[in-house]
Design a protein that fits this description.
Oligomer: single chain
Radius of gyration: 16 Å
Shape: elongated
Strand content: 5-15%
Largest sheet: 3 strands, antiparallel
Number of helices: 5
Strand order of the largest sheet: 1-2-3
Order of helices and strands: HHHHEHEE
Length: about 120
């Protein structure tokens, strides 16, 4: 899961014009939260009315719920306000072992950014 999250933010910083404040980073987190919405809509539209949720729907709903909860207390992610770290992330090769070279923070919905570490351990 951590690798997929980092890959999402790696792609997001390429598409983002400027990340100069925490509000912009929070918008990227909201983008991560909604990253599965199209797939969820597709699964729900392909299901006959009255049928229980598919396994895929359940997994996506659980993912969204977990990310929402984590965002409230502090979403673990690469530090996107540190320019040197952003450059490292841009050049990250996708391998787990390379993740230790990045700096991490926990970003909350209320607007806090708390230094964190790799690998994530609870609310460090």
């Amino acid at each position: 899961m951590a690798v997929n999250r980092i890959k999402f933010f790696q792609k997001a910083i390429v598409e983002a014009e400027d990340l100069s404040d925490l509000a912009q980073v929070q918008q990227l987190v909201l983008g991560y939260l909604s990253s599965q919405d199209e797939e969820l809509d597709r699964l729900q539209s392909n299901k006959r009315p009255g049928r229980p949720p598919t396994t895929g729907e359940t997994i996506i709903k659980q993912f969204k719920s977990a990310v929402e909860t984590e965002f409230e207390s502090g979403m673990w992610m690469p530090d996107l306000l540190n320019n040197a770290n952003v450059n490292l992330l841009r050049n990250w090769n996708g391998e787990w072992a390379s993740l230790a070279t990045l700096k991490y923070v926990r970003v909350t919905r209320s607007g806090d950014s708390i230094e964190s570490a790799f690998p994530p351990k609870g609310a460090n």
